[in-house]
Amino acid sequence: MNKKNLKNRILTGLLGGSLLLFSSLHEWSYFSVFIIIIFLSSSEFFKILGNNNFRPNNILGIFLSVLIFLTVYLYSSKNIIWGIHFLLVPILPIVCLSALYSSKNKQTISNVSVTFFGILYISIPISLLNFIVFDNGEYQSTYLLATLLFLWTSESSAYIGGTLFGKTKLFESVSPMKTWEGVFFGLISNLILAYFLHDFFGFFSYYFWAIFSVVVLVSGIFGDLFESLLKRNFNIKDSGNKLPGHGGFLDRFDSFFFVIPYVYFFLKIVDQIT
């Protein structure tokens, strides 16, 4: 990586990180930022499919992705039950219309399937985030902030550790740059961060935060590997070019999409046993 690309990567990373931290401060900023992330990430995903002999219904996919997030947001933050019905009622006719729209294409089922895969991959995980940040309708950003810090720490440490000491490949056929040494650096860094978060927030034991950090680390790795597999399958280097030095939004949030469901289930398990 040349100096210009490295500079762009650092500046974009700082800007993106600041934006996400800003999103954790207020409910309105949280809602706005993640609506934008869903919209842009979905657009990139469907564009990649469109460039690789698929014909996904972009409008349908993006519309339903935003609608699902909005519905879960209204339910978890405002307890608006009718939002669930607002989501369920249009889905069946929209699917039928989508099939009719692409009926002249021999890959109708494939196109509808990849459209809904995009929704499952991007919108569903981020929609689950609403159940993490809202407690009885009150916005609480503690776990969102912790998730972001664990994810950034593990990814940065894994990159540095892998660059300096990486020898043993993790999944060379999918992502040749990732190594077990990098994973080890990410793990140690997250466990250290867990100690400071335990001290800062002052609730739950260190073991809670340590397990939290491992959940983020492991699920984040699989998220990163999955997106690498998609890009390798479509023979592309980056998902887009909107983020200088990072590629596209999918490149930046691939780990995050996988992390959120596991963090959600981890917190639910902890809630059940405490």
How would you explain this protein's 3D organization?
With 274 residues, the protein is mainly alpha-helical. It folds into 2 domains: 26-140, no CATH class; 141-274, no CATH class. The protein is 77% helix and 4% strand. The chain has 9 helices and 4 strands. The chain has helices spanning 3-23, 27-50, 58-78, 82-101, 108-133, 142-165, 180-201, 206-234, 249-273, and strands spanning 134-135, 138-139, 169-171, 175-179. The strands form 2 sheets. Strands 1-2 form a two-stranded antiparallel ribbon. Strands 3-4 form a two-stranded antiparallel ribbon. β3 (169-171) and β4 form a beta hairpin. The radius of gyration is 19 Å and the shape is flat. 37% of the residues are buried.
Summarize the structure.
This protein has 9 helices and 4 strands; from the N terminus they run H-H-H-H-H-E-E-H-E-E-H-H-H.
